[in-house]
Amino acid sequence: MVVGHGVEQNTFRHGEFPDERGRFGRFGGRYVPEGIMAALLELESAYELARADAAFTRELTHLLRVRVGRPTLLHEVPRFAARLATPGLKVYLKREDMAHTGSHKINNALGQGLLAKRMGKRRIVAETGAGQHGVAVATVGAMLGLNCTIYMGAADMERQQPNVVRMRLLGADVRAVDTGKRRLKDAISESVRDWVSNVDTTHYLFGTAAGPAPYPRIVRDFQTTIGVEARSQILVAEGRLPDYVIACVGGGSNAVGAFHPFTGDARVRLVGVEAAGRGVDTGEHAASLSAGTPGEIDGSFSYLLQDDDGQIAGTHSVAAGLDYPGVGPELSHLKDTGRMSHAAATDALALRGLQLLGRSEGIIAALESAHAVGHLLDLSERDELPADSLVLLCLSGRGDKDLDIAAQQLGLG
Ligand SMILES: *Cc1c(COP(=O)(O)O)cnc(C)c1O
């Protein structure tokens, strides 16, 4: 019954962005040293050829089907919807949590892995924060026979030990980064250094729809499989487009992937939900669209959290995957044009969403995805959701990785 699991249709329907300079309106671009520029341009032209090549798309579509489990399910959650006060509300979940390795990250990792092979690279390097992107990359490395090196901040390695074990079981060389704050930002710097010194053999497999051009576009295209599937699935199930598409926002890859095929449908409201942490007014959050200002981060011009001197601010979220001080350029542009609205859910609201979805439907969401669920709860409780709304919510990942945090925060176990 489900059609449209290919990346071939994803594209380029709203093909005006990015422009030829890699810009989404005033956002994006390439703010990088000379040494990286050549590698980015090589990647850009290789990607242009790949996406125009039917054989590339065919292989990606095939592997997404047989190795990732696409198309992922889209189904209604009536018991959950009934717990919300909005009369006639219908909620559908797009189940990226059921993709191999438990989140949407594999869509991008597989696409870029195939691209690396096509470019004749034998090796992939990647950064990881919580380890979710690292696990997806290590999985793809094993699947495609590519050597895989993952840089991870030493502080993150201590906190995310199970994912370190997973990556090593998958054959990846996991390297601790001891510079700076020993976190994601430092791991990105090390990955770039490795890439630039080994660019003949190595592809840098960046994990979200941010960074310098062409990454925001490449990652968006590979994640757009989410929205392409969901759009045709909800048309089959309901005979109409949803009123809302809601997704959580870290760097923005699952959100932009879910939103992209709907950007031309003016009546579909797109809502990106960031991490409000302990509250946007406490300063302890990761809400770059809500509370940030435009500036340069990781090679791109975009909304970010910075202080008055332009220093990147510290962040907090209960969800490691949302704990990033920036957001990709396409979502920044969708915010400025008003096409997307944004909201922020606190740790507490996300934990409520997590529990309600678990109890009413038997689905343990990732804490990241639980922010989108929590925001829906909040909309309904504030009476801001019209009766008979049809909501499509992207459940970006599963919560198995978050059991310790849930136990601690909710006093379980
Ligand atoms: C990494 C992650 C996110 C955030 O990343 P985006 O690029 O914003 O999608 C969201 N959900 C899950 C489950 C993740 O692992």
Describe the structure concisely.
The chain is of the alpha/beta class and 413 residues long. It has helices at 34-51, 54-68, 78-83, 105-118, 132-144, 154-159, 161-169, 184-197, 215-238, 253-259, 288-291, 329-337, 347-361, 367-381, 403-410; strands spanning 23-24, 27-28, 74-76, 90-95, 123-128, 147-153, 173-177, 202-204, 244-248, 269-277, 293-297, 300-304, 340-346, 390-395. α10 (253-259) links the parallel β9 and β10.
Keywords:
globular, 2 domains, six-stranded mixed sheet, Rossmann fold, four-stranded parallel sheet, disordered N terminus, 413 residues, alpha/beta
Describe this protein's structure.
This protein has 15 helices and 14 strands. With 413 residues, the protein is an alpha/beta fold. The strands form 4 sheets. Strands 3-4-14-9-10-13 form a 6-stranded mixed beta sheet, with helices on both faces. Strands 7-6-5-8 form a 4-stranded parallel beta sheet, sandwiched between helices. Strands 1-2 form a two-stranded antiparallel sheet. Helix 4 crosses helix 5 and helix 9 packs across helix 10. The protein folds into 2 domains: 161 residues, Rossmann fold (3-Layer(aba) Sandwich), CATH 3.40.50; 220 residues, Rossmann fold (3-Layer(aba) Sandwich), CATH 3.40.50. Helix content is 43%, strand content 17%. The site of pyridoxal-5'-phosphate (PLP) has 19 residues, from helix 10 and helix 14.
